[in-house]
Design brief:
Helix content: 25-40%
Number of helices: 9
Order of helices and strands: EEHHEHEHEHEEEEEHEHHHEE
Structural class: alpha/beta
Largest sheet: 5 strands, mixed
Strand order of the largest sheet: 1-7-6-4-5
CATH superfamily of the largest domain: Thiolase/Chalcone synthase
Number of strands: 13
Number of domains: 2
Radius of gyration: 18 Å
CATH architecture of the largest domain: 3-Layer(aba) Sandwich
Shape: globular
Distance between the termini: 17 Å
Length: 316
């Protein structure tokens, strides 16, 4: 067996969960002035999942986390850190991560939430992988979980068609030499904070035109910067797992990266934009669907409110 170096940190297992209730475009046609063709043409979204009454962000995170732990083969008592990326925590405090830690029975794990909107999962991956690499812990659980239906204005036709609920999770730990995370690229521009924010009514408000222009630019450039840091090029990408916000944004990223559609994981037509849960949910589907193989170069990239962005390159 190849010796494991703790400075090489990778993903040992993935998991995800979405609520049972489906909110289709046809359902939205009966709620606001919109139609299926308008939504699909502009976003690529056909349906999204909505949490049941009483189903919390912690509930969503719990099911995804259990699946990731099972896939990883790592025992709960071996987890030393839990990070939950979310903008829809059950409470201001205690953190969703602490509530998740208690429900999973992780006796030795530090736990905290991280808020970077749709970029949150990549931010959390960076923090967790560095904690492992520096010896703070040996294994970490990173979860992206959102209940965006709780902050969506279903009278606003421009935003209510976009968002859904769900969770994705990964277990991180030491991997063989040559595998694991090769680079991270993180950034923020607070001057654009008002372009995508929580308004006075406690609902998502967005300047769609400006966010779209920002996203088209930053998705490709962040991925390219992460590849450069890793000493790799666009030609090395085996699979791109982008934030699932809008099919036109994803298509623009593919064009900039010179990638064919079959090298990109897309599931937004079924789940919509699930913020911090978007990338881990898509990654889990790709892994379980056999689209990721040992040695593959996988690029994760996203953008979100803040404004924030993040990208990561890992060798599976």
């Amino acid at each position: 067996m190849t010796a494991v170096n703790t400075r090489n940190v990778g993903i040992l297992g993935t998991g995800s969960y979405v609520p049972e209730r489906i909110l289709s475009n046809q359902d939205l046609e009966r709620m606001v002035e919109t139609n299926d063709e308008w939504i699909v043409t502009r976003t690529g979204i056909r349906e999204r999942r909505i949490a049941a009454e009483g189903e919390t962000t912690t509930d969503l995170a719990l099911k995804a986390a259990r699946a990731a732990l099972e896939a990883s083969g790592v025992a709960p008592e071996e987890i030393g850190l839990v990070i939950v990326a979310t903008i829809t925590a059950d409470r201001s405090f205690p953190s969703t991560a602490c509530r998740l830690q208690e429900r999973l029975g992780l006796p030795r794990a530090a736990a905290f939430d991280l808020s970077a909107a749709c970029s949150g999962f990549i931010y959390a991956l960076s923090a967790a992988s560095q904690s492992i690499a520096s010896g703070v812990c040996r294994h970490a659980l990173v979860v992206g979980a959102e209940r965006l239906s709780s902050i969506t204005d279903y009278t606003d036709r421009n935003t209510c068609v976009l968002f859904g609920d769900g969770a994705g999770a990964v277990v991180l730990g030491p991997v063989e030499e040559g595998r694991g995370f090769r680079s991270f690229e993180l950034g923020a521009d607070g001057t654009g904070g008002d372009l995508l924010t929580l308004n006075d009514k406690g609902c998502i408000a967005m300047n769609g035109r400006e966010v779209f222009k920002f996203a088209v630019r930053i998705m490709g450039s962040a991925a390219e910067e992460a590849l450069s840091k890793a000493g790799l090029t666009k030609a090395d990408i085996d699979l791109l797992v982008p934030h699932q916000a809008n099919i036109r944004i994803i298509d623009a990223a593919l064009e900039r990266l010179d990638l064919p559609a079959d090298k990109c994981m897309v599931n937004l037509h079924r789940y919509g934009n699930v913020s911090a849960a978007s990338i881990p949910l898509a990654l889990d589907e790709a892994v379980r669907g056999g689209r990721v193989n040992p040695g593959d170069c996988v690029v994760l990239v996203g953008f979100g409110g803040g404004l924030t962005w993040g990208a990561s390159v890992l060798i599976w």
